[in-house]
Specification:
There is one protein chain. The chain has helices at residues 4-15, 19-26, 30-44, 59-81, 100-104, 107-118, 133-137, 171-177, 184-187, 201-208, 223-231, 245-250, 275-288, and strands at residues 49-50, 56-57, 92-98, 120-126, 143-146, 155-169, 192-194, 217-219, 237-240, 254-255, 262-271. It is of the alpha/beta class and 298 residues long. It folds into two domains: 1-90, Arc Repressor Mutant, subunit A (Orthogonal Bundle); 92-298, 3-Layer(aba) Sandwich (D-Maltodextrin-Binding Protein, domain 2), CATH 3.40.190.290. Strands 3, 4, 5, 6, 9, 10 and 11 form a seven-stranded mixed β-sheet that branches. Strands 1-2 form a two-stranded antiparallel ribbon. Helix 1 crosses helix 2 (19-26), helix 1 packs across helix 4 (59-81) and helix 4 (59-81) crosses helix 13. The longest helix has 23 residues, at 59-81. It is elongated and about 70 Å long. 34% of the residues are buried.
């Protein structure tokens, strides 16, 4: 039988990215949570954590984390059927990984009513849409939004739609770098803005225009900061259409190549044995996301 106090210690250390913060969440001392991890490893006969900064789960640690995530959700279902089991009456907390652009645009409006109705708290992990699936694979989250259709073992994926991005720059930037009009081959020779080292959207966009090779760019790991830098004329960037409608109407930002947007599919990944709450949230997103995301053909 599993000792869920030990498994909770493992989950807290991974989710809180350290022994000290994990101990605080559980109301334990750092020494006590460390002892629980050691006891878990002694019972299993192998390490469950790599003692790095932050600590990362081993292969067996990931399997245990996947189990803990699903047990938490199934326990909530049981508590709703047998209220006497819910001694604290605390709201459920769901850990979800999603990309910064979704968080900055449609996500809050899409889930606010659902969270209020279900008495649900969210623990959001921000990752680029191309890599957030690794959080599912590591057992750190119950669900994620990413650009990949293929789910990890034990999970399902659902296409929510696509975010439409447009190549934008400030009028001053365009006047400085494209005085005779914008040409696709010139984009690689002008400063660009890229969200982070895992963001290859600009590369894909240039490749779709027949432009290969590298390009000079700033790195800006902030959705709001990305817009501010674009407005200030530091570079051109691919920006979610949802985020800059006012700037486009006012002429603060201008599209470089009209009618050449790029759509990024967004898939909702969730554990198959995730319980009723995760199923309800999945159904809710499937119905609601059409208000903000464009249709996408797989």
């Amino acid at each position: 039988m599993f000792d869920y106090k030990l498994l909770s210690a493992l989950a807290a250390v991974v989710e809180q990215a350290g022994f000290e913060r994990g101990a605080q969440v559980l109301g334990l001392s750092q020494s006590a949570i460390s002892q629980r991890i050691k006891l878990l490893e002694a019972r299993i006969g192998q390490p469950v954590l790599v003692r790095s900064t932050p600590p990362t789960p081993t292969d067996i640690g990931r399997r245990l984390l996947n189990h803990v995530q699903q047990v938490r959700l199934l326990e909530r279902d049981l508590q709703s059927q047998v209220p006497a089991l819910d001694e604290e009456g605390m709201p459920e907390r769901l850990r979800i990984a999603l990309n910064a652009d979704s968080l900055a645009t449609w996500w809050a409006e899409a889930v606010s009513g659902f969270c209020a109705e279900q008495h649900l708290l969210l623990d959001l992990v921000v990752e680029d849409q191309t890599v957030s699936l690794k959080r599912m694979r590591a057992g750190e989250v119950a669900a994620c939004i990413c650009a990949s259709e293929r789910p990890v073992a034990g999970a399902r994926s659902l296409l929510l739609g696509a975010m439409r991005y447009r190549a934008l720059a400030s009028p001053a930037f365009i006047a400085r770098h494209f005085p005779e009009g914008v040409r696709a081959d010139q984009l690689a020779r002008t400063p660009a803005l890229v969200f982070g080292p895992d963001d290859f959207l600009q590369h894909r966009y240039l490749a779709s225009l027949g432009v290969d090779g590298g390009f000079e760019h700033h790195l800006c790991p902030s959705s709001e900061g990305f817009i501010r830098l674009t407005e200030a004329g530091l570079g051109w960037g691919l920006v979610p259409e949802l985020q800059v409608r006012d700037q486009l109407e006012k002429g603060v930002l201008v599209e470089l190549l009209p009618d050449k947007p790029i759509d990024v599919p967004l898939y909702w990944h969730h554990w198959r044995s995730g319980g009723q709450l995760l199923g309800l949230l999945t159904d809710h997103l499937a119905k609601a996301c059409g208000q903000w995301l464009v249709s996408y053909e797989q």
